[in-house]
Amino acid sequence: MIILLLLILGFKPLVTAADPLVWRCDSHFVNKAYKANIKLLSAALSMSISSTQTIFAKGFTGTKQDRVYGTVQCRGDVSASACPSCITTAFRNIGWPCILETVTAVLYEDCIVHISQEDLIYDSSDMLKRLLVFTNTTERTVSPSIHLEASLMYNSSRIDGNIKVLLQETAKQAAYNSTMMYATGRLDVFSALPLLYSLAQCNLDLPPNDCWDCLKNISSAAKSFFKEQHGEWISGTWCNFRYSTNQFYEGQPMQ
Fold first, then answer.
1. Which of 63, 89, 121 is the last residue of a domain?
2. Predicted local confidence at residue 229, as pLDDT
3. pLDDT tens digit string along 195-230?
4. What pLDDT is recorded for position 220?
5. 96-109 pLDDT tens trace
């Protein structure tokens, strides 16, 4: 049975590691003015989230070749009061992963930051070039007595089809049935397999049709769920999608 949830936000204390889960580097040249503008943008976007009590902000600082555009977004169940802490941490550490290049995106458990020298206007043709992919191969919480690989021999194509339905329905919920552009889901195929949890989220400034288009495109990049992979998080500039055998969000799906 597939159970979908448009999450009723349950706020939690923010716990964020100093290091990002994954990041993207670009090779374009960066001068001192550009780096200074990144700091200004960090302060501006964090202040915007704090003052408006939301979990999404976008903006730019600087002029001409030194201009920096950015978007920041926290996961839909992270409170607007806690969100700025993750954003500040992300910007503070945005310089270290790429020694000879420039960080243009960082993914944390509770927030995502994208920066660019170009305006981050939605562009479906450029979507798959900007993906961050975090693959989890250790999240499985199945009892040791359950041999997952053997279980998969039972109609694995049917299971895989149900998972695709879960991903699509979660994306539709986020795009068309949520003012927060955020939804979660849960899939329970049969008792020999772990529950599968899903999440879909778009930037709050995206129209519903663009949100659906974005999620549909990045979900097509998802790898096979089975074998040694037990979770995957795919994040683009304008939307992100995640599934896992662990419940990674707050709140319970509909029963």
1. 121
2. 57
3. 889 999 999 999 999 999 999 988 877 665 444 456
4. 77
5. 656 656 768 899 99
pTM, two decimal places: 0.80
State the residue range of the domain holding 91.
22-121
Single out the residue of 222, 227, 223 nearest to residue 153, CA to CA.
227
Instruction: List, in sequence order, every residue forming a beta bridge with 115; answer none if it has no partner.
Output: 70
Contact (Cβ atoms closer than 8 angstroms) between residue 45 and residue 70: yes
User: What CA–CA distance (Å, rounded) separates 23 from 45?
Assistant: 19
Last residue of a domain, one of 86, 121, 156: 121
Query: How many other CB atoms are found less than 10 A from the CB of residue 216?
Result: 17
Within a domain: 250: no
Calpha distance 126→71 (Å, rounded): 16
179 and 238 together in one domain = yes
Contact at 8 Å (CB) between 75 and 105?
A: no
